[in-house]
Write a structure and sequence with these properties.
Immunoglobulin-like, disordered N terminus, 13% helix, five-stranded mixed β-sheet, 1 helix
């Protein structure tokens, strides 16, 4: 019984130090505000379907250092959703991970655009995330 209790305590401790905060951005939303603690990793997830040619990109990647936000995967990762049938071309989730940096009185801003990489003239969809970083 003691070994089981020790294992549970170890697993809870491991999860608490490696835990990444995940935020799922709802579809059809243009702006959102999230709150994270300083120097913590967080993940933003956006629905998408790259088989259409569209992908999510960080629009203001060059300004993230000014906000003291460190992207951990600047190009994002894509995970296709599981379905009951083996369907080709169905959507999934784009995942972007960041380190929140130091606390600030001002919101930090991350802007995303959902577009085809070869099209520069028109942004079909965008999302602005305001990040509040506290102690």
């Amino acid at each position: 019984m003691n070994s089981l209790k020790s294992l549970i305590i170890f697993l809870l401790f491991t999860l608490s130090i490696s835990k990444i905060i995940r935020f799922k951005v709802p579809e059809n939303i243009k702006k959102a505000k999230i709150s994270v603690k300083e120097n913590k990793e967080f993940e933003l997830r956006l629905n998408g379907n790259p088989t259409t040619g569209y992908s999510w990109f960080i629009l203001n990647a060059d300004k993230l250092n000014d906000y003291d936000i460190k992207p951990l995967n600047i190009d994002g990762d894509y995970y296709q959703e599981e379905t009951y049938e083996k369907l080709l071309g169905h959507g999934g989730v784009f995942s972007f991970k960041f380190n929140s940096g130091s606390a600030s009185d001002k919101n930090k801003v991350i802007k995303f655009v959902y577009k085809r990489p070869w099209e520069d003239s028109k942004y079909d969809e965008y999302v602005t995330i305001y990040v509040s970083v506290k102690n």
